[in-house]
Amino acid sequence: MMATPAVGWFEITGKDGAALQRYYRDLFGWQIQDAGDGSGYGLVAADRGIGGGIGTSHDGPGHVTLYVEVDDVAAYLDRAERLGGRTLVPPTELAQFGLTFAFFADPEGHVVGLSRGAIR
């Protein structure tokens, strides 16, 4: 029997890949390196959790699907708003799972989840 699949990558694309890279660098302190292929796509290395990529969408408005594990969900929501995002779902605790989550939209409207307790 195979192990249960887990998220192993994330991707965030939008109209202005460079601006999105700056936003997430400033929000989470991520180190983002150019992929080196001339596309402007940035690679996010993970020292815990998963790695991913951020760049310009070449087929529509873009997309994002991920949860970011943080130590203080409310504080990161506040920071996301100060940087131009907006809260969609305030911190919600699921005590039975030891999990708190929330959702915000980045400056381009991508929905991003924040969690505390998802990574053990």
Structural commentary:
The radius of gyration is 15 Å and the shape is globular. The protein has 2 helices and 9 strands. It has a single domain, classed as 2,3-Dihydroxybiphenyl 1,2-Dioxygenase, domain 1 (Roll). It has a 5-stranded mixed beta sheet, with helices on one face. A hairpin with a 7-residue loop joins β2 and β3. Helices cover 18% and strands 38% of the residues. The protein has 120 residues and is α+β, with helices and mostly antiparallel strands. The mean pLDDT is 89.
**Number of beta-strand segments:** 9
What count of helical segments does DSSP give? 2
Class based on secondary structure composition and strand pairing: alpha+beta
Strand content: 35-45%
Characteristics:
4-stranded mixed β-sheet; 2 helices; alpha+beta; 2,3-Dihydroxybiphenyl 1,2-Dioxygenase, domain 1; 120 residues; 5-stranded mixed β-sheet
